[in-house]
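From the shared-data thread, chain only:
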Amino acid sequence: MNTHSQTRQTRFNWIDQTKGLAILAIVIFHFFQNYPERSQLISILDSNGAKLGYAAVDIFFLMAGLNTSYALISKLQKNQIEPSKNNWKSWLIKRLYRIYPAYILAFILSCLLYFFANSKINLNLNFFLSFIGIAGIRFQSINPGFWFFTVILEAYLLTPLIFLFCKNKPNKILFLGIIGAIITKLLAFYFLIADDQNNYLFFLQNNFIGSYLFQFCLGLYWGFIYAKHQSFRKIDFIVASILFSVGILIYAILTIFKIKYIYMLGIDMLFTPLFFLGIQALLSRLDKIAQIGRILSFLSILGIYSYQIYLIHQPLYFVLLPKLNHVIQINNYLKIGVSLMIVSILLAIYVFSFIKIERFVMKMLGTLMNKQN
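Structure, as tokens:
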């Protein structure tokens, strides 16, 4: 999410805006998911918001892959370096330096938030595993959103192996992503049939890069394409449209026969490509309309700090929503709107403060590293 891979000179507005849309969908979804009163309206908003949330997460992993390969290929081309001679150790250290400090800071501030709200923290094995970045379905503590860090960490650790194994060939990277994703989803389906919930959930969604391997590798593939053409090709839209049509057909058949479908068991692979290309095409056109410049600027800001927002927003919900629900005694529908407004304001303040603290920490780390060198 927070892959500031492009140089300042080649930053594309649609990239930040796409991430901004994605994080906005996730923040809203999590609000309704964590809202204390489970009325019919909340349940409807929650279930429909979940679909947007899942699609948004897919977009994030696609964007992580695209940013990674685009920045890498552009840098190598600029410096006239062969891809096979890339210094992967240096690349990985820089990646970890970008994502780990914010994660550790988010973990500490989340603990403080719980402490001041008199919420209990279990100092168990999961707590310490989450602190070092191993979080998810099986090792969840403090913040269920920390699973994203674990999976993005796995993605970055896997990236050099993907490039080396595929010999920097984008077609091979895409094929690897498709095969790996199909195997993962078949395993998830097997454990679903076997009624093994732990392994089913592990392979379906959280704490495992295999669940998002297709999206990540598709992003890596399109990063090559965009670095070469500075746009997406007609063939990309054609193939994405065909996959989307197949997905709609499958969805319609399942709906007719009243068969409950699970988005992450393959439909995500059919929908994500066109979702992404459609959003990119739309935002690129909207960016030329001056009248909506402020809206797009707002989305850009959300996108730039989407990683930070993802890391810290859920604990605020856990702490605030029950208290607001208890304090605000008005019509239930008005209460939802008032709670959403209050939480949005406090979340904006919290994110702003977090970013300020993060910048200070990064500055201190940079000073310390320079002294050591």
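Residues 332-372 form the longest helix (41 residues).
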